[in-house]
Design brief:
Strand order of the largest sheet: 6-9-10-3-11-12
CATH superfamily of the domain at 7-95 and 172-256: P-loop containing nucleotide triphosphate hydrolases
CATH topology of the domain at 7-95 and 172-256: Rossmann fold
Order of helices and strands: EEEHEEHEEHHEHEHEHEEH
Number of helices: 8
Strand content: 25-35%
Number of strands: 12
Length: 257
């Protein structure tokens, strides 16, 4: 079992292509269990591509490099096996799944993860009790559990539903792509509280965000700037504040000059 502080995600020289376009040239980064790393970068810099590639999205072809999760080759796994191994990806624009009830979708996902961990599955009653408790803590009405996944949900409700899935599945690594988009003040508070609670339990986070307020509220262990298909710089919150103050191009010029 991976404990807080253990090496969890290791990425070496990852190169990714989407169609004919090379998006990531050579990305290298490590994340420990319980660590939060914020990824910032200009639009089109490849932040979402990194998350999709780690999750195994078929549109994003890994053409070079390595990535391992808890010492296991992540890139050799099918997408569903990556999820079972403890990888969670929150979408920037969560899709809806008409006809698939939220509670059935989540319980099926949870039991698949528990099976991979050699743990007992959860029955419908225990699942519902736990799901209602978490939903209440993030201001998502319990009635949403009986609705089709994200169908008719507002932007903020979709993001809260992603938080519910995250908390239920308790992954080893969560990639959160613009999770604050469309959230109100209470929603942002729920995000921060969820991240803080789970990082204390050993979950690592790769937080993709443009928002300095979001990054400051989460208080990540490190901030990394993605530029030109590579991790251009890493630093503390001061790096995020510099980017917010000067913009990406000026921030790069200040280093290159």
């Amino acid at each position: 079992m991976t404990k807080q502080g253990d090496k969890l995600l290791e990425i070496r020289n990852l190169a990714v292509q989407a169609g004919d376009q090379r998006v990531l040239e050579s990305v290298s980064i490590d994340i420990d269990a319980g660590e939060v790393v914020a990824i910032m970068g200009a639009n089109g810099s490849g932040k979402s591509t990194l998350g999709f590639a780690l999750a195994g999205h078929p549109r994003y072809e890994v053409v070079g490099g390595e990535a391992s999760l808890a010492g296991v080759d992540l890139l050799a796994m099918e997408p569903q096996d990556r999820a079972r191994a403890g990888l969670f990806l929150s979408f920037q624009s969560p899709p809806d799944l008409p006809g698939v009830r939220n509670n059935l979708f989540m319980r099926t996902s949870l039991n698949a993860v528990l099976e991979a961990r050699n743990e007992e599955p959860v029955d419908a009653f225990d699942f519902l009790e736990r799901a209602k408790g978490i939903a209440g803590s993030i201001d998502l009405p319990a009635a949403f559990l009986n609705r089709p996944v994200n169908e008719g949900f507002s932007g903020g409700e979709r993001k809260r539903n992603e938080l519910l899935q995250l908390a239920m599945l308790a992954p080893k690594l969560a990639v959160l792509d613009e999770v604050d988009s469309g959230m109100d003040v209470d929603g942002l508070r729920a995000i921060v509280e969820t991240i803080n609670r789970m990082r204390a339990q050993g979950t690592a986070f790769l937080l993709i965000s443009h928002s300095l307020a979001m990054v400051e509220a989460v208080n990540p262990d490190r901030v990394a700037e993605l530029d030109g298909g590579r991790i251009a710089r890493t630093g503390s919150l001061d790096l995020a504040r510099e980017i917010a103050r000067t913009g990406f191009s000026r921030a790069r010029e200040s280093v290159e000059g």
